[in-house]
Amino acid sequence: MFLTTEEEQSFQGEHGEAIQLAMSVLVKLGEMYNADRMIRIENVHVDASSYYGISDAGVEFVEKMVEVGAAYKVPTTLCIASIDFENHAEFEVSDECVEKQLRIARAHSTMGANPTWTCTPYQCGSLVKFGQNIAWGESNAIAFVNSVIGARTIRCADFVDICAAVTGLMPRFGLYLDDQRRGSVLFKLEDLDTRQFTSADYAALGYYVGGVADSRVPVLQGVSKSVSKDQLKAFSAAVSTSGSIGLFHMTEITPEARSFNEAFGGESPQETLVFGKDELREARASLTTRNEVDPEIAILGCPHYSLEELIETAEFLKNKRVSEDKQLWIFTNKCGKQAAKKAGILEKIAETGAKVICDTCFLLFPTSAWELGSIVTDSAKMAHYAPGLGDFRVSFLDKVQCIESVTEQ
């Protein structure tokens, strides 16, 4: 892989140990994927931010980077933590988890990160633009920023994202290249009124598409132009859960698919599949491991709920209370929570007995102190991963059904 004189000097350690360490990782990555050269990036979203995600080795790595003088060269946001920084005591999080998560937070702060603590940086003022080269971790964020915004990133692994932020560089391969962004498999939506789709329907659609497309770039034809950003978020999270998808196109909706021809780069689809009512039912059913809907907890906000979703949730909760033997947990980020508080929405939700949890996610959140077994959720990502975290039995439902299953008048 070609390196400029400055990049070679960085690789040899002439610009300090931190940059040398980061460059050694990026050069090795580039060699693995036959990258021709490095490119400059303008933004990073670090997924190596949660203690339950990166463990003790991750704590050691970020503190080592601080010790050798690392500093982030480009705007850098942080993905979720393993605690709600303000309210972790309420959830009986262990002292060890809190202490090590705070160490991770201090290290990132010292290096210059923006402590967004969210899996949805695109909803928290990341200001990423079409065509920019960036380096993002977190699967839903990668799919969303590539597809809906049109910026360019590969699926950055933990610690690669940190190395990119320290150097401002990434090896040029994969979705940074024009020819790797062309669609390859077509999904035609037929006999469906997607104008009536809920976010859970879009999540089920994404889960089906990801499972079939695997690592190919899917193109969807027939999605309503009224699809919302939150519905695209649900789709992004699901399609990147069941498949290794970093980019999708929706004809006449996403910016690199203004036409069918543009989506496929002038080529014909390698494969064409039809998605209809049967496939939608199949996808939704595949996300349920428990058919009896008598949950102990409803979990919403995976990915983090936006202000609009919090407002809608408050409306669904109107004149209801969470049942005494049940829980309703809603995950969001600081920007969503602060906006909801200012609008009086947070107070309305809290009055019902529901808990709004910030900075973290149930999937990387210590729940051992809570006796939780049966879950309902509107998130395909949650429904996919939760059974593997413990003895969780999951029902995948629309948001309003989730709320109704744990509340009473």
Q: What can you tell me about this protein's structure?
A:
The protein has helices at 5-12, 17-32, 51-67, 95-111, 139-149, 160-167, 199-213, 229-242, 260-263, 277-286, 307-316, 334-342, 345-351, 380-385, 399-405, and strands spanning 38-40, 44-46, 76-78, 135-136, 169-171, 185-189, 218-221, 249-250, 271-275, 297-305, 321-322, 327-332, 355-358, 374-377, 393-396, 407-408. The strands form five sheets. Strands 13-12-10-14-15 form a five-stranded parallel β-sheet. A four-stranded parallel β-sheet has the order 8-7-6-9. A three-stranded parallel β-sheet has the order 3-2-4, with helices on one face. The termini are far apart. The chain is α/β, with parallel strands linked by helices and 409 residues long. It has three domains: 5-178, Aconitase, domain 3 (2-Layer Sandwich), CATH 3.30.499.10; 182-286, no CATH class; 297-408, 2-Layer Sandwich (Aconitase, domain 3), CATH 3.30.499. α7 (199-213) packs across α10.
SSE topology sketch:
Blueprint: H1 5-12, H2 17-32, E1 38-40, E2 44-46, H3 51-67, E3 76-78, H4 95-111, E4 135-136, H5 139-149, H6 160-167, E5 169-171, E6 185-189, H7 199-213, E7 218-221, H8 229-242, E8 249-250, H9 260-263, E9 271-275, H10 277-286, E10 297-305, H11 307-316, E11 321-322, E12 327-332, H12 334-342, H13 345-351, E13 355-358, E14 374-377, H14 380-385, E15 393-396, H15 399-405, E16 407-408
Parallel strand pairs: 2-3, 2-4, 6-7, 6-9, 7-8, 10-12, 10-14, 12-13, 14-15
Antiparallel strand pairs: 1-5, 11-16
